[in-house]
């Protein structure tokens, strides 16, 4: 079995990020090798992927799904391919625009190492101390962690190779997903749960 794991931080709330991932038909927008994904029912998806001009088709079935937390799936043959995506709500620090150029603004011309203009005040050592830096601004974000596993001798020859399941391609696709979400309007997604491959309708808490 081969395994690829990658993570990316998205500057968007976890619900928005999770909902975007549940829109499987949008995968071709950020997965280079995927041509189309058709959602057959709440847990089954039909994929069409191509690489090097060779088209592959296969089905996956969602095995676990919890809103804003996790989505896991497996190929319908039960052994050749599995995937899991975890969503974690985080805070992403942003630079404070009010501090931009502060050092330059405070700097004054000096002569011989002394600041020109007003007399220099002498501060006793006991009164000297380090000023506390301002707290960084933070925005609500999401860490997306994906893990793919596949059978080298079966799935790789069929769909794994078509999907480009290697570290570099997964990393590129994840960053494509990040850009896709950060530059899109929020969409509604399916908020039901799946346990053991059996879908459960959305609860009032998840709607």
Automatic annotation (TrEMBL):
Sequence ranges of Basic and acidic residues compositional bias: 186-196
Signal sequence annotation: none
UniProt-annotated stretches for the region Disordered: 186-207
CDD domains in UniProt: SRPBCC_8 (cd07817)
InterPro entries: COQ10_START, ORF3, START-like_dom_sf
Domain (Coenzyme Q-binding protein COQ10 START): residue spans on this chain: 10-151
One Pfam assignment: Polyketide_cyc
Residues that span the membrane, as ranges: none
SUPFAM superfamilies: Bet v1-like
Protein name: Uncharacterized protein YndB with AHSA1/START domain
């Amino acid at each position: 079995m081969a395994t690829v794991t990658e993570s990316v931080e998205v500057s968007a709330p976890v619900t928005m990020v999770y909902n975007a991932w549940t829109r499987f038909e949008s995968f071709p927008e950020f997965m280079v090798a995927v041509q189309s994904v058709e959602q057959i029912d709440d847990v089954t998806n039909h994929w069409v992927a191509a690489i090097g001009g060779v088209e592959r088709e296969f089905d996956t079935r969602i095995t676990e799904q919890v809103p804003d937390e996790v989505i896991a799936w497996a190929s319908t043959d039960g052994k050749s391919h599995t995937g899991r995506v975890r969503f974690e709500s985080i805070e992403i620090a942003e630079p404070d625009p009010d501090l931009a150029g502060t050092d330059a603004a405070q700097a004054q011309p000096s002569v011989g190492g002394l600041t020109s203009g007003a007399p220099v005040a002498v501060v006793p050592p006991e009164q000297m101390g380090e000023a506390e830096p301002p707290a960084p601004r933070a925005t609500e974000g999401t860490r997306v962690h994906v893990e793919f596993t596949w059978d080298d001798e079966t799935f790789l020859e069929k769909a794994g190779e078509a999907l480009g399941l290697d570290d570099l391609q997964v990393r590129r696709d994840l960053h494509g997903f990040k850009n896709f979400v950060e530059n899109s309007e929020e969409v509604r997604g399916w908020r039901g749960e799946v346990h053991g491959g059996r879908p459960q309708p959305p609860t009032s808490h998840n709607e």
